[in-house]
Design a protein that fits this description.
The chain is built from one helix and 14 strands. By secondary structure, it is an all-beta fold. The longest helix is centred in the last third of the chain and has 5 residues. Helices cover 3% and strands 45% of the residues.
Length: 185
């Protein structure tokens, strides 16, 4: 699937459930040659979800333990990839992996993402601008393969797992089958 500016649905993993979410969509577009804008739109009953309050933008870790939006980037043909996490609080994290769930290191040599969060009665929208050239460190042209996902925490502390595509078995956003979007840059 080619990356889209039009929001496309994320699907809840069969092993998790969250009735408070009506829809969860994501979109992606390239911008200015070295950045990507990721948009996540969650519509639902926010009173039944645990959504971190907006705060100053900062680096944090283990954002996947609560409501957060995620993206995974790799270059076609490579086993190395980056994981990006964005919380509605505007906390963020970026990691590199040498292979699936192996060799995890914190990305410390890239520009911080730029995050914007909008809350309404109907839901929340998070826009994250990331500088893909800092993360991938390959010269153009490249074909990026991308996985978009989210973790949503409900009022009972239960997590639901959302993605464009889920691999067989338990939720695993790192699985190669999750990288369904492609973007030539």
């Amino acid at each position: 699937m080619i990356a889209s500016r039009v929001p496309i649905p994320l699907y809840c993993h069969a092993a998790s459930n969250c009735e408070a979410v009506r829809t969860l969509k994501a979109a992606l577009r390239a911008f200015d040659g070295d950045s990507l804008v990721l948009r996540y739109v969650l519509e639902g009953d926010l009173e039944r979800l645990i959504i971190p309050a907006e705060d100053a933008q900062r680096r944090a870790h283990e954002l996947w333990l609560h409501t957060s939006f995620e993206a995974f980037l790799t270059v076609a043909g490579s086993s190395a990839y980056c994981e990006l996490n964005f919380a509605p609080s505007r906390a963020w994290a970026m990691y590199r992996f040498s292979a699936r769930r192996q060799g995890m290191t914190v990305v410390s040599d890239a520009r911080a993402p730029q995050l914007a969060v909008e809350r309404t009665a109907a839901g929340i929208t998070l826009d994250a601008t990331v500088f893909w050239r800092d993360l991938i460190q390959k010269s153009s042209p490249v074909r990026l393969r991308i996985a978009l996902a989210a973790v949503v925490e409900d009022e009972g502390g239960r997590l639901s797992y959302w993605a464009l595509r889920h691999a067989p078995g338990r939720p695993d956003f790192h699985h190669p089958d999750s990288f369904t979007l492609e973007l030539d840059l």
